[in-house]
């Protein structure tokens, strides 16, 4: 059992060995589990804040550290760090995080949710495809990167996506293709929302200045309501 510290850095076991992350517990001490998956910048204060916000909504939120403590300071450094993380290795580490959450006394329900951004959105889709019924709700924000699956037949989670119409990193036409492919290959419940916003519009600390407050607020409200519905 985790201790009752509301917010803490912690370690957990994965196929890759001991991994680290950030755990945020709700005031009640228990609730549905949600994996929070970082952007290519690393486990930043912004991602920790996302976990804290989910805990304030009643979730047990775990944000695994995919880069072993490293934080990128510009796009070139972030791209290099992402390129050094094999998709298979990241997926195995995240699978360990899922099992850790499911094994916690504080986590209620039989499946967990997953929410991720950019690179993390790609890993959300990978987890949903690989972990089957262990993932009950998948929320990719502009999911990209090497982890994006080529096939979604294994998805059992309900999927809610959030993508930008002005995304020059992942064109909206590709997002529509992704939405259709997930729906066709998984048969799961799939809803994508599209915003008049660029890539990474949810990140209020994004170095590129892509944050769009109203779009971020709307996407967040939809995500929280969806996770509450699907992880009960």
Automatic annotation (TrEMBL):
Arranged from A to Z, the UniProt key words for this protein are: Hydrolase
- Kindly list the GO molecular function terms attached to this UniProt entry: carboxymethylenebutenolidase activity
Acetylation in keyword set: no
Name used for this protein in its record: Carboxymethylenebutenolidase
Query: Its domain of life?
Result: Bacteria
SUPFAM superfamilies from the UniProt entry: alpha/beta-Hydrolases (SSF53474)
A Pfam family: DLH
Q: What Enzyme Commission number does this protein have? A: 3.1.1.45
- The record's top EC class is hydrolase
| Domain spans labelled Dienelactone hydrolase | 21-229
Please name the PANTHER family in this protein's record: ALPHA_BETA-HYDROLASES SUPERFAMILY PROTEIN, CARBOXYMETHYLENEBUTENOLIDASE-RELATED
